[in-house]
Amino acid sequence: MEQLTYRDAGVNLDAAQDIKERIKSIVAPTHGPQVLGGVGGFGALYRLGGYNDPVLVSSTDGVGTKLKLAIMMDRYDTIGEDLVNACINDIIVCGAEPLFFLDYLAVGVLESDVVESLIAGMARACEQAGCALIGGETAQMPGLYADGDFDMAGFVVGAVERDAILDGSDIAPGDAIIGIPSNGLHTNGYSLVRHAFGLDDNPTPLQEVVPELGEGVTIGDALLMPHPSYVDAVRPVLPMIKGMAHITGGGIVENMPRILPEGTAARFDSSAWRVPPIFTLLQERAAISREEMYRVFNMGIGMALVCDATEVDGVLASVPNADLVGTVTGDANGERVSVV
Length: 340
Fold this sequence. Notes:
The chain is an alpha+beta fold. It has eleven helices and twelve strands. It is 29% helix and 24% strand.
């Protein structure tokens, strides 16, 4: 009888070891003196220093069905950035500094070049944010994932001084809402997008060039625009703001109330910022209502900052391309957020 191997069952141990070695050089630039040990240990070690009364802040996220579009287009160079920045943006709203990031990849068949592209994107995003890509796991699971399919998740840990935590508790009527622009859909709403453009089994619409999106820009290009990090934008204004909302799944309508104290509401003026053309195209092609668009997508605001009205000029001067987009009011009959 011929002897059975793990590779016969669909798991390539040699490829796994090879990608581990390749990853070491990719993630090395993200490591500072706080990282103790390198890639490959059972646990990642990080020395926390420089804080008097630190509070750890953590978050985990994925990139949803945006992965399906990356697979359809065979383009993996930015999806790792999506993963890192979706996680990091969730902790910076607390005023936290990102410290380290870990990833989890689950694949049907290990394709080393694909994994390397994914990790390279994560490393770029971590380096930009000053965050260590400290470890991760790549699991080969043939039979659970079809060939070419995979899933990914990220985990970030940050820290903030206890007395510097931003929780929105000081937000009051009369405060200003400042929006930092998004560059597109980020990582949310892609199940609706795929249905709207008929992308479930047909990648052809992704190759369509639409002039409104920019010269030579395809629908696929616009949909794969990477989720940006807002770390650099918000760092200089942390002392000036009372709270921040990362506008992700649920859009403005569901994310803004997460930082509003009881008895307050947010009123947005939709004429005050530019909505990226991919949203207009999507709404027109699929006849999606305005209400549904604002309930699902960020609609052009990636991060909403709340500050006292006296701080508006200072915040706008410090955050590139930011706009005054709304105001905090008293609770209007239970409607926590309105977009007019």
